[in-house]
Fold each of these.
Amino acid sequence: MDYEELAAQLMEATHPKDKRPPLNEVQKQERVRDMTLRYLYENGGSAAPGRLAEFFDVSSARVAKLLGELEQKGFVVREGDSADRRRVTVRLTPAGETYVLDLDAGFRRRLAALLAMLGERDAREMVRLMVRVMEVMETLEEEEPCY
């Protein structure tokens, strides 16, 4: 079996050329916003700005700008440390948590529609294969990180 050829077919199927226009700046900013809010939600609702910069591999200035925007929308608050005034923690607000939960609900609805279109047999097979793919990817990442 030629796994390189299969990989090329899979790449073409999942990333077809000229089928999707590139993201504009607003769309890119929305994705970064959503990923940041999701990160906070999945990590106990708070994080240090430096941790966000490290995780997303962006500058502290970029994180500061993003946090200002998220703060204006009421999605996060920045809290100073009373013991060390240089330390700041970013905390997800209830509005930010609701936003993340709404994103999840919308994504779940779209996935459910996709699975329904596949039919029960193919949907179950797709889920089984995706679980297996994620297990294999985790093993590969441990052996050789791709970043």
Amino acid sequence: MPDVTFYVLPQDEETTRMQVLCRLVEKAWLQDLSILVLAEDQPEAHRIDEALWSFRPESFVPHCLIDHIPAKAPPALITWSGQALPDAQVWFNIARTPCQPGRRCQRLIQLVAGSAEQREIQRQQWRHYRDLGWSVNKIELA
């Protein structure tokens, strides 16, 4: 049963959301954890892929899209709704629907944007995870 953390962003800006996502993915990678990023759709998965390549010049997080996995998979995989959901220790759910992490998942991270619509979607996801009996908490980012 994973711990669920909702990171609440102060703004509803795509660049802020991508920067926070990249920093959190990098932090998980530096802790030597396997990572799965679940995007809403394929275009968003490609934006995440590009953001991970370029978010900091001095940083590199080995990653790939789920439809381009090499023989030796990198520690971070990016997938989207309707695609395979391989098991990983840390899941980042950026999609609009709750997810059901695999057995190895220790931590599920949700990013909450500032818009009222996004906050309502995340409230529903919070209730979903809480109703499953999972530990759910929130971190407000300034």
Amino acid sequence: MVSGLNCFISSRRDALKSAAFLILIVLFSSSSFSSEKHFDRNQLPQLSQEILDKSQFSYKKQVVMTATIVPVQTQRVRVFKLLAKDKTWLLEDQYNPLIIDIDNYLIDGHHRLDGIKELGIKKVRVLRVNATIEEIIEAFNEYRDFSPTYEPQKN
């Protein structure tokens, strides 16, 4: 009887150790060990639905939660930032969809996303390209933009 109880306690302890280990893996993979991606603005292609239509990539029109989109650049173009002061076009849903990759990394639309977040818009229209951001950057190299940029002040 004692032997069976010891076996039960031992197997339960092993199960708890395994569960704790899995929890640690999940926590670390979504925080300090996860890889954030960052690109300079001139590395990213400036895309539109028309450009995607002429490419070999498929995409889906979707509405996603704004919070799930992962920006990959911090640089901004001053002229675009000035033009974006009037945000009524965002509130009236008159913007071009943001372009994201299969993992929700933002490829095109960082200025629009800034305004969308400032206005507290919870859902956003996107074109989700069926490729990784690296594949998209390589394929659309000719659509890079070399406008002068700046790093905005962090709030």
